Amino acid sequence: MKVLLIEDERQLADSIIRYLSGENYVCEHAASYQQASEKIELYEYECILLDLMLPGGDGLQLLDEIKKQHTDTGIIIISARDAIDDKIKGLQTGADDYLAKPFHLSELSARIYSVIRRRKFQNSNILELNELKLDLLAKTVHVHQQEVILTRKEFDLLMYFLGNQNRVISKNALAEHLSGDVADMLDNHNFVYAHIKNLKRKLGEAGCDNYLKTIYGTGYKWEI
Question: Is the pLDDT of residue 84 over 50?
Answer without folding.
Answer: yes
